[in-house]
Structure formats: C-alpha cells, structure tokens
Description:
This protein has about 240 residues and is mostly helical. The protein has one domain. The longest helix has about 35 residues. The chain is flat and about 60 Å long. The chain starts with a helix and ends with a helix.
Amino acid sequence: MTLLEHLGELRHRIIVCTLTVFVGGIVVYFLYNHVLAFFLSPYCQILKGDHKSSPGSCTLYVQNPIDQLTIRIKVAFFGGCALALPVLLWQLWRFITPGLNPNEKRYAVPFTAASVVLFIFGGFTALETFPLALRFFHSVGGSHIGTIYAPDPYLGLIMLLIVAYGIAFEFPVVLVALQLAHVVTSQKLRKWRRGAIVGVTVFSAVFTPSSDPISMFAMAVPMYLFYEGAIITGRLLKR
C-alpha cells in the first residue's frame, strides 16, 4: 500500500470508530437515569448506615444550571466509548494487521478478545473496589463532617477508576506481545520479578485516581498476578 492508501485506510477506521461511539452514546443518553442510579448505589449504601445523613439525601447537587446537560453528555460519551470498545479494538487490529506476516496475523482475534475481556474485568474490579474506597473517604474525616457530592467530581472519579483499571489490566497483553516480538523473553521477565513488584506498586500508587490504599492494592495485586501469568503464556506460545 502507498502512503495515500494507508491514510485512506486510517480515515475509514476513524470514521467507523466515530460512528460506533456516536451510536453507543445515543443509547446511553436515553438510558441515563438507569446509569446514574447504578453509579449512585455505592453512595446510597453508605448513607443508609450514616446517622449524619437525612432520609432521601442520596442525591448529587449542581450549582450551575447547565451542569445537568453537560454531565448527561459526558456520561453518554463515556458510555458510548465503553459500548464501542470491541469495535474500537477490532478496528485498531485491522489497521495494524496489513503490516504483519501471516504467522502474526493469527494472533489478531485472540489479542482483541483478550484486550476486551481484560478491560471489562478491570472495569468490574474498579466498580467492586469503589464502594470500599468511598467508605474509606467517608469515614476518614471524622464524625463531625458531612458530605454533599457534586455530580462532576463523583462521576468523574468513577469513570477515571474504570478507565485506569481497564488500561492497567491490559498489562499482560502488552507483555505477551513483547515476548512474541522477541523484545523480551520469559527468562528475563523471571529475573525481573523483584523489580516488577516495586514497579507495579509504584505504578498503582501513581496511576490510581482516588489515591486511597484500597484501590491501590486492588490494582497492584492483580497486575503482579498478570505478570506471572504473562510469563507462563509467553513460554507456552513459544512452544
């Protein structure tokens, strides 16, 4: 393919991705109330057992008249990206595969499927960890401090956690790809175990949006297990 043909291929992939995100965003826009209720459930659970909170206080408050519209659009865009994730990854692989040899092309589907599954698993872990982190933040201020959350920081934190965990859980896919590309070997990865423990811990401490110890360890422990799993997977694929 010439340079112009590559650019035309890239334009086609970008258009498909954009349309997919747009359609997914429309779906989430009309399901906004259900999505918001789902994200509010951890906050509501905490307030049920809090003597400082009044009945019906499980509500997010805005100060700007246009905030409700902008927040709905942000949630719709984020949800559209989440729904379009399989298509986005598939389009990325389809753009890359013309530059691969036939032996490498057969890994496109498994890598795409693994990336989607790991990202979903990361998002699920973030959602399961968030109530614990929120309870930690809610209690650390003491009994004389109440909470009134605004939608933007509250929903923004949940979305950042989902994205952060989803990206972090792609770690084994990257390691296996590097082994198949002969950039690193499973022997080297085994020798780097101690450094990997330190690196994963530092990465989790810096990359966790909420910066609480619960979320940090909930990211660090699976990432190190993924590190060990990538070593085993790399050895099996080489055989």
